[in-house]
Amino acid sequence: MQFSIKKLSKEEYKGWKLPMQYSSDGYYDVHINKSSEGYRVEIIRTVLEETVIHLMKDENSDALFQDHWENTYAWGIFDEQRLVGVLETDVEIWSNRLRITELWVDEAYRRKGLAHRLMKIAKEQARQERRRAIILETQSCNVNAISFYHSEGFELIGFDRSCYSNDDLEKKEVRLEFGFLMDHKSRIQEEQLVIRKEEREDEKQVERMTQLAFWNKHHQGCDEHYLVHKLRKDPAYLSDISRIACVGEDIVGCIMYSKAKIIENAQTEHTVLTFGPLCVAPDWQGRGIGELLLKETIKLAAEQGYPGIVIFGEPDYYPRNGFQTCDRFHITTMDGKNFDAFMAYELNEDGFKNIRGRFQESEVFHKLPEEEVSEFNLRFPILEKIPFPFHWD
To answer: Which of 28, 357, 369, 374 supports an S-S bond with 264, CB 3.0-4.6 Å?
Structure first.
């Protein structure tokens, strides 16, 4: 079977009811014993004499895009036009946790790995958004779901004995909370990292690392690794400033610099720098490697006398590293616009004081042909394209 994963729009799927049904040959019996010393809780798996079918009791309890979820995203797995699996998530802003509000696979499509594929999406969302944990709830009688969550690395983090009714304990249907704690990554020590020029034998590993860093980040798939490949041959590329970051034999980051222009008028233009991509391997993100690459290369660029750097980048990241929006320097895009993701950095005091105009980068940064990117992707192991609306919708 060939399955496709698509974003589910709120406009089309709000109120869509998930036909929740599952069978169980057991349950987790919750015992709460109170004494003068406190409470003792035991949650023990118990086998039923006969398999029990559990049906959704409240027809509205498992509908998509419910109003009480404020930051909802949803994805569906389709077998041609048939929706056979759903993941819905919502962000707990106050606790920086991602909650899985719905995870459903059509009964006829279970045990085909679809739930695992949906869980991968939730884990990737949590990683990209740097959430500290993923949480979800299930019932103590849903032993198959609990086994699946265990296999995905979730652990019991709490329970609610009266979530569904005042008789949940007696009904053997207690709400159990499970959590997947994201890895805490400490900042890398500078002595652990080697920052150096890229060598010819590094090229394919750099491209693969770049592909993994950007895959599904801004749109389905990515083309930044192909940009790296083409950029090396572009006249504007500056290999003497560009750098890669290594931990042991592994390449874990890179920053690629190019010359660009600020066009003041038909007779006057100024040479400046731009960079892109700047990226870090997924397993090494959040540890300060990108900042160290910036620190090293900004120093090199300043020593070579360039006035400043102009980029299109993430506005929640680069201002922490000294970048400011270009409107502060009277610099616009070629079509005269300014926005938060269009930023600049002065390499020396008042570097942009006598520079104003429209920013123009090399044509290599223009949209790369999809057919060329697809052909280039054949050089690497296949990755699944997933629509992440929290980045590009």
So the answer is: 357
